[in-house]
Amino acid sequence: MKKIITLLLLLPIGMYGQVKDPPKVDDQVKKEVPSEAVKSDLSEKKEQTIVREPVCIAGDCENGTGTMNYTSGTYFGEWKNKLRHGEGSYKWTNGDVYSGNWQDDKRHGQGQYIWNDGSKYVGNYSHGIRSGYGIYYYANGSIYEGTWQNNLKHGIANFYYKESVNIGGRYIDNQYVTGTGINQNSYEFKPKG
Q1: Whole-model pTM?
Q2: What are phi and psi of 74, to 5 degrees?
Q3: Whose CB among 47, 75, 78, 160 lies 3.0–4.6 Å from 143's, allowing a Cys bridge?
């Protein structure tokens, strides 16, 4: 009987340890990255969702130009060996749109990704991720102009706010490290969206 009572007393402690998961790396990133950037990264990953039965609805979806319907959206553009390759556009069912270069079924080269909330990225992709130079236009009007690595702000950049600009800021893994702020009215080279 003592064993049963002891077991019943310890059971809630064991259950608590099983229910409480350690924080995930993604949770830490969400704390450090503006919510729009987190959302944008998640939206871009939708393309990688496994599609059960894509259907070619027009043209040549093997080696040419054609339109393919997926469960997550529609692609119109160039194909090579049954893969998205060359110029093309993908429109997700939620309204997000990517237009630009593709290689081996991934965004690769110059492209533009517009989210359904109005935020936009214009720049370079490498094997499906933002990499190299690019400009991110936030829905709130802020602009990041600089380099990217693994979908994160990384390197030297300018960040434009409504009333100011940070020139030559340095970012490491999405975190601002250093830079010089000046009044935006005296800086006439803000990117046009």
Answers
A1: 0.70
A2: -135, 135
A3: 160
Q: How confident is the model at residue 186 (pLDDT cuts 50, 70, 90)?
A: low
Determine the Cα–Cα distance for residues 37 and 172; give it in Å rounded to an integer: 15
Residue type, 127: H
Bridge partners for 153 per DSSP: 148
CA–CA dist 151, 43 (Å, integer): 12
Instruction: Please say whether the beta carbons of 56 and 75 come within 8 A.
Output: no
Any idea how long the chain is?
A: 193
In order of 41, 56, 80, the CA distances from 128 in angstroms are 11, 22, 17
Residue 169 pLDDT exceeds 60? yes
73: which residues sit within 8 A by CB, 6+ positions away?
Answer: 90, 91, 92, 93, 96
Amino acid at 130: R
- In whole angstroms, give the CA distance from residue 177 to residue 146: 14
Q: What percent of the chain has pLDDT over 70?
A: 70
DSSP state of 54: -
- What tokens were used for 8? 């019943």
CB atoms within 10 A of CB 86: 15
